[in-house]
């Protein structure tokens, strides 16, 4: 291992051409379903995208103040399953099981 802690990158390089870093985390199943729903929404207008690209686009467009971030964190902490799932209808939500690996809409 080289011990390098930084990777220099020209600011004009496309994000698609940048080195990648893999990360993993756990989050509530309803948010996982919401991400799939958002990928499906993008597909409705012809966007052929996937969960990774959509999350990256959302993160790129996120520019919040510290107070706004604090508000969103508190909202998340108080949210329910019904708040997370788009179009939640009824008292029970059935979450589909997915195989590991990339998913795309369609």
List the helices and strands and how they pair.
Layout: H1 29-44, H2 51-60, H3 66-78, H4 81-84
Question: In words, what does this structure look like?
Answer:
The protein has four helices and no strands. It is mostly helical and 106 residues long. The radius of gyration is 17 Å and the shape is globular.
Instruction: State the separation between the terminal residues, measured CA to CA.
Output: 41 Å
- Approximately how much beta-strand content do the residues carry? under 5%
Mean of pLDDT? 88
**Regions with pLDDT < 50 over 5+ consecutive residues?**
none
Shape annotation: globular
Structural class: mainly alpha
Largest sheet: none
Compute the CA-based radius of gyration. 17 Å
- The H-and-E topology, N to C, reads as HHHH
Number of strands: 0
Helix content estimate: 40-55%
Total DSSP helices: 4
Task: List key phrases describing it.
106 residues; globular; single chain; mainly alpha
Summarize the structure.
The protein has 106 residues and is mostly helical. It has helices spanning 29-44, 51-60, 66-78, 81-84. The longest helix has 16 residues, at 29-44.
């Amino acid at each position: 291992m080289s011990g390098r802690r930084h990777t220099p990158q020209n600011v004009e390089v496309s994000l698609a051409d940048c080195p990648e870093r893999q990360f993993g985390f756990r989050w509530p199943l309803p948010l996982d379903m919401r991400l799939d729903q958002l990928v499906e929404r993008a597909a409705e207008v012809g966007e052929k995208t996937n969960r990774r690209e959509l999350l990256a686009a959302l993160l790129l467009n996120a520019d919040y103040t510290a107070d706004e971030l604090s508000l969103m964190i508190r909202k998340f902490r108080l949210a329910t399953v019904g708040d997370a799932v788009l179009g939640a209808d009824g008292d029970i939500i059935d979450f589909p099981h997915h195989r590991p690996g990339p998913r795309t809409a369609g």
